[in-house]
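haha ok so turns out i had the wrong file open the whole time. this is the CORRECT one, sorry everyone. sequence first:
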Amino acid sequence: TAGWVFAILLLLLPPHPELFHLISSPQGIRRFLPYVFQLIHVKLPYLYRNYTIMKRFLLFGLLFPLLVMGQEQTISTIPAPASPGRKLHVPKLMKRQDALILRLGLDNWTNLPTGVQTNLLGSRGFGLLVMGEKMNAKNRIGAAFGFGLSSHRVDHNAVALTDTDGVGTVLTPLSDSVDYRKNRYVLNSLDAAFEIRFRGNPDKHQNHFKFSLGFRAGYVVQSHLKFKDDRVKYKDYSIEDIQRWRYGVTARIGFGNFAVDGYYSFAPLFKDGKGPVDMMPYSIGIAWTICSD
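then structure:
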């Protein structure tokens, strides 16, 4: 530290032809003291007043070599243009097909209780999947895995009531005198999906015939009943007997970026012993591949 202080003093002091000769002997040090006083009373106050300016110059001096080195590194890492007989390397991520899939479908249930009916056209659900795939060398067969979300919506003519024994849910048809616009169960879930994928030979536009068979599982993070008529509109979030874990098989068949999509649940709508028996959700719709090669 003392060495650095001494070096800074030498830089700040005014030039003198006998300076180094003065500080090399005891007599010279006594003659050197006036220069030190000059440093304390003149140089240091000047540096204090101009600290901000000097700090900027010092910062620029430190960063300028790094900027130059970074620019040289950037220039050196730019790949050279490909020769006519050489193909550019394309990252595998850009070669994935069906990586982002939007599903729009008509939802329904099996084994409806007596008198309960569903409005198929009003039961519009949707889902979104982000998937990665691993295909064979010929891009004909492979597997895919990913995550997403889905919203299962069924419009029906029933009201959920508590069973007479106080346990479970009963779906009772609404009276014909009740004129309503919406009476819909909504199940929103986070999903994980796995697929086995098959593809045909591509046409001149690189579109394939595609078929996939898989499995999708998820957890219902939110569910509610939405009711609306000419006078009232409300949502009921107190549906406690819904089966939260969902799982079932999926299938998709199509050409290019569009396909017919289907899902059938192996998990009933309600928990065992908590509602109508064997009401299995299912969905049929279309799938649109947003990202493809």
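DSSP finds four helices and twelve strands in the chain.
again sry for the mixup
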